[in-house]
Amino acid sequence: MSQIHTQNPKFLLRIARPEDAALVVNFMNKLGTFQKMADAITATPERIERLLASKQGEAVFGVYDGKTVGFAYFHQKSSAFTGRSGLYIDGFLIDDSMRGKKLGNIMMQFLSKYALDRGCEMLEWGCLDWNTPAIEFYQKLGSYCVDEMHIYRLSPDGLAANAMLFKGATRTEFSMG
Q: Residue 75: which CATH number?
């Protein structure tokens, strides 16, 4: 699946391979700058390559007239609240110069089809509350905001500190498989 044709003959999609990790990081850095949180992007090409190679993360690029102008980074998720599986979009960006050409719509349509083809029942992502153009774009797609929830995260140090406090089973005693 090297090139995926779309309804726009100038716009193709391409599924990322592990060797595209630096391009994913480049787009994440652009996204971080746009979101006024560039310092929050700590991904490296090596980490993204590992995620892509292990299929823990996936990406698709939007290519317009031979130039890569957009991307989405996503992964499989599930919800115990709904009992459904889905894809979670962790990064999504269309270059400023290409906005208004419906390329974002095409990418979201593709991700919706990709999710359904994998047996998923939802597509989910986050959006900063000040990003009114993105909110309006997502609402036009038919999505809704799950605004009664805040997302919390443990950093690698916090994760390790919490794990150290657990005095139960060792790694070999519990296998999720």
A: 3.40.630.30
